[in-house]
Specification:
By secondary structure, the chain is of the alpha+beta class. The chain has helices at about 25-35, 35-50, 65-75, 95-100, 105-120; strands at about 1-5, 15-20, 55, 80-85, 90-95.
């Protein structure tokens, strides 16, 4: 079962996006979503942010349509939440849900991504 996340201004007919309910998030789907380097980069950026980020706030070396695909995969697999704030699509990490379902997973993934980046000289 997926849930609709109401957008700001939903009463005025604003769009909303479907997200899986916490109980419908599965480990295999989360790991699939995190397996792609661009999606992992998005998750790292969201984890480092103080609050939500607009899609344009996360610079990725891919086309806009590919960015849209990566954000959709993360949302549909329960890793991020997306909602509209005006015309901007905002993104946030579903850390509370993921930590409740898979304690320590996101912290371990973020730690490993940081170690890998340092090893490869990306930081």
């Amino acid at each position: 079962m997926s849930t609709e996340t109401p957008a700001a201004g939903a009463a005025s007919g604003a769009r909303s996006l479907a997200h899986p309910a916490r109980e419908d998030i599965r480990l295999a789907q989360v790991l699939h979503a995190l397996a792609d380097p661009m999606r992992l980069r998005i998750v790292c950026a969201l984890a480092a942010a103080d609050g939500e980020l607009n899609c344009a706030d996360i610079e990725l070396p891919v086309s806009k349509s590919t960015c849209t695909h990566h954000f959709r995969v993360l949302r549909e697999n329960g890793v991020i939440t997306q909602f509209y704030r005006g015309t901007a699509k905002m993104n946030g990490l579903r850390r509370d849900d993921l930590d409740a379902l898979f304690p320590g997973l996101i912290d371990a993934v973020l730690r490993a991504a940081g170690l890998q980046a340092r090893h490869l000289g990306e930081h």
